[in-house]
Amino acid sequence: MERKLGDPKIRYQILESTNEFVLGSLKERKFNEGTIVIAGFQTHGEGMGENRWESEKDKNLLLSLVLKPVFLEPAHQFYLNKFASLAVYDFVKHVLPDKNVTVKWPNDVYIDDKKVAGILINNTIIGKHFEYVVLGIGLNINQKTFKSDAPNPVSLIHHTNKELNLEECLQSLLHYLNSRYEQLKVEKSQSLDGDYLNVLYRYQNWSEFKTENRTFKGRITGITEYGQLQIEEESGKTQEYDFKTVEFSG
Fold it and tell me: Domain spans of the chain?
């Protein structure tokens, strides 16, 4: 019988980082696909690059999911970002159906202009296949106050005005992760591409962008099959950007 994502669940009160725990354990143990590691608190929660993920103890969802997507070529690994961010989007939109929820490239989930969730993906590749994919998700649920210098965090409680049950949130999130993962398996890129663009933050809206050496006005017109951001400038020229080489300037 095919194993569902979220089975089994391994729980810890405190970890340095759920992703680092899984990655550090791979030499000593094998994880079945679908295994999920959950922490009540992370002492060294990771974000993209040098960023850190702030989370108050037992207030949010902090988890890492083990995947073995043998059906997906490593060259097309950006589809992991798409399926995961869309699953988190689905969950947030289910909780807040009347709010403006979007996915900010490559995989942050936003409510209006504030970040409610972040995703970090680590993988190991053997030959032309993934051996393991470790999908880390930090999702702000019940935290009211943030003390770090992160520019724009927000939690669901800021919009629901009441605490949510974390276990119920976890089960709902796993439902959407399973659904989107099945979509990735069965349909590959056909529908995920459209779904991702439909909820992409500031898609087709003229905005100010900045790179290392200039600021310019442009609009996002698409994503390449390798996950690069396509931005059309006012001159009509379209450029492709890798992650961390361009950002919104305002």
Answer: 9-198, 207-248
Tokens of 156: 């669901």
Can you say how many angstroms the Cα of residue 80 is from the centroid of all Cα atoms in its chain? Answer: 9
pTM recorded for the entire structure? 0.95
Cα pseudo-dihedral 25, 30, 32, 38, rounded to 10:
-20
pLDDT tens per residue, range 135-192: 999 999 999 999 877 779 999 999 999 999 999 999 999 999 999 999 999 876 679 9
Radius of gyration of the chain (CA): 18
Three-state DSSP string of 41-57: EECCCECCCCCECCCCC
**123 class by beta-carbon count within 10 Å (0-12 exposed, 13-18 middle, 19+ buried):** middle
Q: In what order do the strands lie in the sheet with 9-15?
A: 9-15, 36-42, 61-67, 129-139, 114-126, 108-111, 101-104
Q: Which fold has domain 9-198?
A: BirA Bifunctional Protein; domain 2 (3.30.930)
CA distance 110 to 115: 4
**According to CATH, what is the number of the domain 207-248?**
2.30.30.100
Nearest to 226 by CA among 201, 198, 195, 189: 189
Question: How many Cβ atoms from other residues are within 10 Å of residue 17's Cβ?
Answer: 22
